Amino acid sequence: MARKKNRMVQEVNAGSMADIAFLLLIFFLVTTTIASDKGILNVLPPKVDPNVPPPDIQKNERNIYTILVNANDDLLVEGEYRENADGLDKDVKAFVLNFGAPDEEAAALYNSLPASLQAEAARNPESSDHPSEAVVSIKTNRGTSYEKYLEVLDLVKKAYFDIYATRANLTTDEYRALGGKDDAEQALIDKGKEGIAMQISIAEPDKLGSN
Amino acid sequence: MGKFGKKNKVSENIPTSALPDIIFMLLFFFMVTTVLRDQEILVEQKIPQATQLQKLQKKTLISYMFIGKPKNVALYGSEPRIQANDALMNPSDIVQWVNQERDLLPEADRGGITISLKVDKDVKMGPISDVQTELREADARRVLYASVGKVANN
């Protein structure tokens, strides 16, 4: 003999739920950090074995692009004083793509480049012979600030990434974002890099300057 | 003239039932994009800016190392120090630390260990190069100079 109750429109009061959710939200805002796993990737040279004398590499001076940074963060690029690093990426790019004295392999590489990169080749006999010979050397001082060092390294990397991206027909940002997750991406990466290895030498800082 | 009818007064209830949903959405967004702070950072961290940032695919391979001026100057002095795993260490401890970190990784990935150097921008190159020498000694040669994106000004 159950009596029928009056059916009323029942509304659950959800107002306090928002407060609870807010509390959770604020807890997460406070206790977490946004992950920043981005940065400039660099591979250090292998450690020097004291028993093996360093290989005697004969490099012509013209194939090395020297960037010196002193303790006051002044730059000496290829023997020329610079107040700041602006435009360094363009100069490095011009240096890498100089094709001063290409051998057979480099001539084939030159022919495979897109026209916009071919136009960069100044063929200056004073500058690099061809990209696989070209080395960019960064030398700092113990007193150089890390910020300046990173700025210079950043610009040199930009020069290379610009070249790679143009070869792969992408913008620089798109090229850098390629992760090599599948074969298509890997193929694009390889297309950019082929024959032009990123040769950046980071010399050990000399002892001058502070600590 | 003057024939505007008076509206009846209705008790007005703004429906707020969608509010929790919105906030939950925000909450989930934060839960997904952030990580819990797993260690207290004892050194100052003003990460320098750069443009050519790359992202690593495998996050598990990264070990973090923080370099900067200690926050607690009275206790640790004002010279830049290295922090890894919640403790300050000397450059001579790096080889051991790298080996420990490497042992935590699966066998196949040990060669790909990457050290993310989170360096304060006021640090000079001297301590950095000491660290790099030690990392070369420990054969952990993949180094990520952590930095944040710079907005291009041209």
For the structure shown, list the relevant keywords.
heterodimer, A: 211 residues, alpha/beta, 7 strands, 17% strand, elongated, B: 154 residues, Nucleotidyltransferase, domain 5, 9 strands, 22% strand, protein transport (chain B), ExbD (chain B), transmembrane (chain B)
Describe this structure in words.
The complex is a heterodimer of chains A (211) and B (154). Chain A is α/β, with parallel strands linked by helices and 211 residues long. Chain A has a domain at 61-202. Chain A contains seven helices and seven strands, in the order H-E-E-E-E-E-H-H-H-E-H-H-H-E. Chain A has helices spanning 15-31, 88-96, 104-112, 115-118, 146-167, 172-177, 183-193; strands at 32-34, 38-43, 64-69, 75-77, 80-82, 135-141, 200-206. A five-stranded mixed β-sheet of chain A has the order 5-4-3-6-7, covered by helices on one side. In chain A, helix 2 (88-96) crosses helix 5 and helix 5 packs across helix 7 (183-193). The longest helix of chain A has 22 residues, at 146-167. Chain A is elongated. The termini of chain A are far apart. Chain B has 154 residues and is an alpha/beta fold. Chain B has four helices and nine strands; from the N terminus they run H-E-E-E-E-H-E-E-H-E-H-E-E. In chain B, the strands form two sheets. In chain B, strands 6-5-4-7-8 form a five-stranded mixed β-sheet, with helices on one face. Chain B has a two-stranded parallel ribbon with strand order 2-9. In chain B, a hairpin with a 2-residue loop joins strand 5 and strand 6 (87-89). Chain B starts with 17 loop residues before the first helix and ends in a 5-residue tail after the last strand. Chain B has a domain at 59-145: Nucleotidyltransferase, domain 5, CATH 3.30.420. Classes of the chains: A alpha/beta (211), B alpha/beta (154). At the A-B interface, helix 1, strand 1, strand 2 and helix 5 of A face helix 1, strand 1, strand 3, strand 7 and helix 4 of B.
